[in-house]
Design brief:
Radius of gyration: 17 Å
Number of strands: 12
CATH class: Mainly Beta
Largest sheet: 7 strands, antiparallel
Distance between the termini: 27 Å
CATH topology: Pnp Oxidase, Chain A
Number of domains: 1
CATH architecture: Roll
Strand content: 35-45%
CATH superfamily: Electron Transport, Fmn-binding Protein, Chain A
């Protein structure tokens, strides 16, 4: 079956993903951010990750100029943040407390709604289709004792682990 954009979206919408808000500041210190589920660990030996940023994103110029960003993985309490940062609102930070990263050029850290965050410095940028991929070194991080927010097929959920016997599942 041919994989067009609709099929591709269906493919990646078929499983739950964590939700992150990627943030950066521009040369004047103005904060920018967008909701993303396109974050990937690259290496633990040299802690690094990858993000994908659409060419039309208002956050893209801030990442390009600062060469730094923060990835705020959202906790269950971050649903409103996910929705606001996915929108075209002009002041996305108005209703959220944040502090500037001392490592990632002041990129906003959304402490109150984050499950965890990574403070990153760009090491490589690759243009692919209508996106830019940024491979970045994780130079700071924090993890909080909260439940993660997940997203699947336009719906939100919260991780709810169950003790499931893997052998029992394979028999199904």
């Amino acid at each position: 079956m041919d994989v067009g954009s609709a099929r591709f979206s269906e493919l990646f919408g078929s499983f739950p993903t964590p939700i992150a808000v990627v943030t950066a500041t521009d040369g004047e210190g103005e904060p920018f951010g967008f909701t993303s589920n396109a974050v990937c660990a690259v290496s633990a030996a040299r802690p690094s990750l990858l993000i994908s940023v659409g060419k039309g994103s208002r956050t893209l110029p801030a990442i390009m100029s600062s060469q730094a960003f923060a990835v705020n993985f959202l906790a269950a309490s971050g649903r409103a943040a996910s929705q606001v940062f996915a929108s075209k609102a002009t002041d996305k930070f108005a209703n959220f407390e944040w502090r500037p990263s001392g490592i990632a050029q002041g990129a906003p850290l959304l402490i109150d709604v984050a499950l965890s965050y990574a403070e990153c410095r760009v090491e490589n940028a690759i243009e692919v289709g209508d996106h830019w991929l940024f491979i970045a070194r994780v130079e700071g991080s924090a993890v909080f004792p909260r439940e993660p927010l997940l997203y699947r097929r336009g719906d939100y959920g919260v991780w709810s682990p169950q003790n499931v016997d893997v052998e029992e599942l394979s028999a199904l």
